[in-house]
Design goal:
alpha+beta; about 30% strand; disordered C terminus
């Protein structure tokens, strides 16, 4: 199956001699002894997918993620990647692919990986290295920081906000509602919040990956760039915002959109009010007003 699965990769480089096609049975047995190999079988017990991994110094190295050509596009690759991650809970994950494997890169970024390095091996072959942090948002030796947004950060906050809305919200809302949220978070509104020292940025390794706004007892404009989601950045921003508010107030309020509601419920927020509004194009926008008390936060 490995030979079949990597034919498409070989064709990308017009090279039938790429490493996965040269791997021997002894090489595979060595990987089995030193790590984990997972497989997926069909109803006839025929292997149709596989992935391998091993751990070293807090990093799980994932490789040979493959799906039989006739079974691709059915979510098997996603399931395998998530399954191998579960073998190494709480660790940093690292994998690589070729620069021409655009489908692989899109899959990895959708599942929370980000590009952090690349290596040119030949004129035709370049490897792209991607990583995914543990749910704490921690990369070995590095921590996420949260800082106050300054006037020079207006465009950065706008870009984080509008990229997230444009890539995530269409999966939850019709076009008219997506446009409503885009207009709500206009550059003018972002500028006003920053000038009033209400907006903060999450920074990882010099990259601004998320933002949140705090206005009195209200948390708003919580966004994390799509390639960095599912790494604990949203949780870190919420932890920061809640701590800031609870220093001087007993309750927190927020307006929950569909993409974020599940997280807020897990954090102990409760529905206070339900609002809906009909837009000009006859789309409806529905919002839950949620709140959390300091007492409940202490219990949680």
């Amino acid at each position: 199956m490995q030979y079949l699965a990597y034919q498409s990769e070989a064709k990308l480089f017009s090279n039938p001699d790429i490493p996965p096609l040269r791997q021997t049975l002894d090489d595979v047995l060595e990987e089995y002894r030193n790590g984990v190999i997972l497989k997926v079988s069909d109803s006839n017990n025929k292997i149709i997918g596989s992935v391998r991994g091993y751990s070293s110094d807090g990093t799980a190295y994932i490789g040979k993620l493959m799906v039989h050509p006739q079974k691709q596009g059915q979510g098997i690759g996603t399931a395998l990647l998530q399954a191998i991650e579960m073998q190494y809970p709480g660790q940093r994950y690292e994998l690589f692919t070729s620069s021409r494997s655009h489908g692989n890169i899109r899959l990895y970024e959708r599942l929370g990986y980000r590009i952090f390095d690349e290596k040119k091996l030949t004129e035709e072959l370049k490897f792209i290295y991607l990583e995914k942090l543990s749910q704490t948002g921690i990369r070995p030796g590095e921590l996420l920081s949260v800082r106050l947004a300054m006037p020079k950060d207006i465009q950065t906050v706008w870009q984080i906000t509008h990229r997230t809305i444009s890539e995530v919200y269409p999966h939850f809302y019709p076009g008219g509602v997506v446009d409503f949220f885009s207009a709500l978070h206009s550059e003018q509104n972002i500028r006003e919040d920053i000038m009033q020292s209400r907006t903060y940025l999450a920074v990882y390794d010099t990259v601004c990956v998320g933002t949140v706004t705090i206005n009195g007892t209200e948390i708003s404009r919580l966004f994390v760039l799509p390639p960095y989601q599912h790494n604990g950045y949203g949780t870190a921003l919420m932890d920061f915002a809640e701590q800031k508010i609870f220093e001087t107030h007993a309750k927190i309020e927020l307006h929950a959109s569909l993409p974020g509601k599940a997280m807020y419920l897990k954090r102990g927020y409760r529905e206070k009010e339900y609002r809906r509004k009909k837009l000009e194009n006859d789309d409806w926008i529905c919002i839950d007003i949620m709140e959390k008390s300091k007492h409940r936060a202490d219990v949680l």
